[in-house]
Structure prediction request, 503 residues.
Amino acid sequence: MTEKKFDPVIVGFFCNWCTSAAADLAGTSRLHYPASIRPIRVMCSSTVDPVYLVRALQEGADATILGGCHPGDCHYITGNYKARRRVAIVKTVLKSLGFDDTRVLLEWISGSEGPKFARVMNEYTDYIKKRGPSDFKYLDSLGGEKVD
Amino acid sequence: MTENEMLKKFIKDAFEKGLIEAVMAPSATQDSYTYALITKKEDVDKLTPIAPVMQWNGADMIRRITKLKKSERKLLAILRPCESRTYKELVKFNQINPENIIVLTYDCPGTVHARNYKYEPTSSEKLIEEMKSGKISNKIRESCSVCEYPTPIKGVGDIGLGIVNTTEPVFFSLSDKGKEFLAGMGINEGERDDSSWVKLHRDNREKWLKEERITGGRKGLEEFLSSCLNCHNCKDMCPICFCKECFFEDHSVFDYESNKFYNWADDKDGIRLPTDKSLFHVGRLIHMGTSCIGCGLCQQACPMDIPLYRLFGIVGNDLQKVFNYKPGVNDDIPPVMDFREDELHEFEGLFGGEE
Prediction:
């Protein structure tokens, strides 16, 4: 199983108004981005309870992305500021316990930034490929080798 | 006169002067102490205002009293310093209505683990004696020996009782409400120096924060929680976990078709059941870590003796540092209820906001 090329699973929670629109734009502009991204459209980045992020990591994702509008551009005025605090909490908890906190990514991508969307997804997938499979998904399992 | 007798006299006087109509304070049971609510002066002798055991967090009890409506009678609550900080934190979270409530807190000698007390009873007088001699008792709970604020703080609670570094215990006010109350009682405010008692604990804490940290990611966490029963007692005892419905109690969230389980078992070379054991603790850390007061009741409640306060206290400390927030000691808004427009850029993007 280990000989197989590592193909990461990255779960993306994308806000309806910005990052999801950017994903659409990247698609219609025929920009290439990796199939390892599994997008989930949410109404706002702040609707994502931080536990969803770690839960995705435990259930098998190698990384998660939370995409929202740029600060100041939130459709609900202040949602993305709250999301930022939540991501800060998740990352701090992961780091504090000795997990890899780069497995949670917060990005601001507006609806017009299709190229940025494709670039971020490519870069992040490459980065995760280099890091290897996530340790967190083996929490409470019998498998998994020593990773980061 | 012992501190307990002095406090009882204080309560009786307050009843006589009509300043209070009810008191909430610990009362002895066969093997332990629980909080008791009394409304008559004759019942005061049933109380032990300073108990050697903390079975529940008193602020959680006040939350239950004022859950539906503000306190209709003037209530005097005798709380430990950690409980008074919890009280303050719960007021911020709109879980307690502070109207008509006076909180009295004191220099805390620490508490004994409830189970140890059952088999090896001690008295608060003994603990206070050790405190007066400037020594942290070796009988007290881990969280008490590394307490960051073992004495009353200005602005947290209303009245303080100073016990350390003074021949006679002294009362002092912590708020305007308390000042008025003490004036009504005809008590002169005293002063005492608590810095040495606080320093003892802080030194312990510094060492503890460094030495007891859980590291090693998955391996470290699994080892630490290896005997966890998933009973959720730590959550039930936590005063900050006040949600009516807990994400982790709603089992339908974790309902999956059987194939999901088999697929996980395929992918992960076998899974342990239930699947949300460690996730529960990580999730709880994320939800309440920023407001962890440090009462250590999670650890006391653990039937498997997992030193949970090392998890919640140390990670909580890291979280609170990120937001420069100290729960329950001042009027700052809890991090989960607040935001700034220009902050935390180091958590944006892959390499800390460089774009």
User: Anything to note?
Assistant: DSSP finds 14 helices and six strands in chain B. Residues 195-211 of chain B form the longest helix (17 residues).
